[in-house]
User: What shape does this take?
Amino acid sequence: MENPYMPYPVRIDDIEIATEDKSLKTFKFVFLNEGDEEKFAYHAGQFAELSIPGVGEIPIGIASSPVEKGFVKFTVFKTGVVTSHLHNMKVGDIMGLRGPLGNWYPWDKLENKNVVIIGGGFAFTTLRSSIIYMLDPANRSKFKNIDVVYGARSPGMLLYRDELFEWEKRNDINMHITVDSTDDPSWKYHTGFVPQIVEQNAPKADQDTYAIICGPPIMIKFTQPSLTQLGYKPHQIIMSLENRMKCGIGMCGRCNIGKELVCKDGPVFTLDEINQTPKEY
Amino acid sequence: MGYKLSPLAFDYYLKALRNTYRIFAPVLQKGKGKFAGTDVISYGEINSLDDIMLDRKSYFSPKEVLYPIRETLFYFLNDETKAPAINVKPILILVRPCDLNGIGKLDRVFLNNGQEVDFYYARRRELIKFAMIECVEGFDTCFCVSMDSNVANNYDMAVRFDEDNITVKVVDKSLITKDLTHADTAIFEPAFIQENKVKVTIPEVDLVTKKTFDHELWEEYTSRCIACGRCNTSCITCSCYTMQDIKLSDDKKIGERRRVWAGCHIDGFTNMAGGHNFRKKNGEKMRFKTMHKINDFYKRFNEHMCVGCGRCDDVCPEYISFSKCINKLNAIVREETLHE
Assistant: This one.
């Protein structure tokens, strides 16, 4: 019998400080056992449990993309017991990885559609995974226009800066990078909060346009009216929820809201689906 | 086929079964009650008929036999991760029909809720056979008939306990020993309770709306519930758990990962790193539990989760009655529907 609680052993291959305040680090893992990477085949939008023996497990969105092979990446905010411990670990340390877990952004449904990606702060990890996936030469033709609105407090708090600025140069993706404020005179992108940048720059909705939105609750709350104004219907707004989780496979009951188990039925829901649940997220 | 046994003969039968099975039944735990000098009835291993407590409802359900309160998932030793072995001697549990149906709900959650099967639950569940205690009267707080869980047919044997004799119906032939074949045969089909003192009416699943959610009814529970979680721990169908990692050596090379029962009424159930908590008020917890037991579980599995054993009513220190809550909710839903 398979034990779904058993993590795959992984080695930390690289650690990168992701933001100027050092509160986020990107961990690159490689699988120790041959064949585990294939078993871990995932879609953009899924998450996994990072397992540190004797410390605990944490559910984290997968930041690497299914089209990137040989490793998996997670960008982790230092905030609790396990994440603090993880931030102190070193390259070469062995730990565990359990997953992939949950559903993913509805890639089949998004084919031949315009996709607008809206992210804020450090909730850009599975969105990075998605952008890399969509921009892959094998996939780009499956999607129509791609727009990205991504904002952070300051330029130094933007995740994956090198990649952002590279995407900015491409003509097959429209980047709208913004910061809340900056005193950097050379800053050549937007300044202002995400909802406002969405209102000014995101394409108007038609029935072939979908928005994927990830960010802090306050950003999501204020971005919804902007999207409504642009004509997006609740079924065209796709979101990813974060709830308390333990097992990640629908057993422990911790992430349960209404009839939905966020870990198994989610974390990706349309606003339509979320509106059916009590506001317990 | 049934067999009629004297108490002494039944004891010999139990003794024979104990060669193959560990037998669990409601037993009196001396001095383990909630007040000093009081006892509690909960599930424990038995040796003889005298150990079985039938005149009162067990305070805790039999779920701890197949789903322990605390269980080690893994031992960590250096970079090795290993699941512990368990006692694989088969188990026979004496349960009432409501609990047998309740275990069916646990099976749903742990075995039939998607691709994954809960390894730890499954390997214990495989060891278990059920001896159903015939239950025709129930107790003061039971409402199994309303919950459609008064009848169970998936038992391996059924037992009727009378004053002078015990009648046994054996379905699983492997439970037949010489002690039975030498006993008098009897025609025995277990009867089931037909009416409880407490009755509930479940509001129709689709009629419960977000409006019901925001009803002031739940405020009452905010002021009353103290989030002790007794309703969760005594419930046969509550299956939520938390996970804990423990270091067993200073160099952090040895440790274990455990899972421990958790309950939606207990503080911290929905706490997240960074200070978020999405169900803070105790009334919100009561609402979550109520909806889960008689509404949301149904949407997933087409049957209600609550089996009406009434233990949550028995154990609540604040005298919150779940059956009353269901009936109040039903009245509210009916009124809301009338006004629309």
About this structure: Chain A touches chain B through 40 residues (CB under 8 Å). The longest helix of chain A spans residues 217-229. The mean pLDDT of chain A is 94. Residues 24 and 77 of chain A are 4 Å apart (CA to CA).
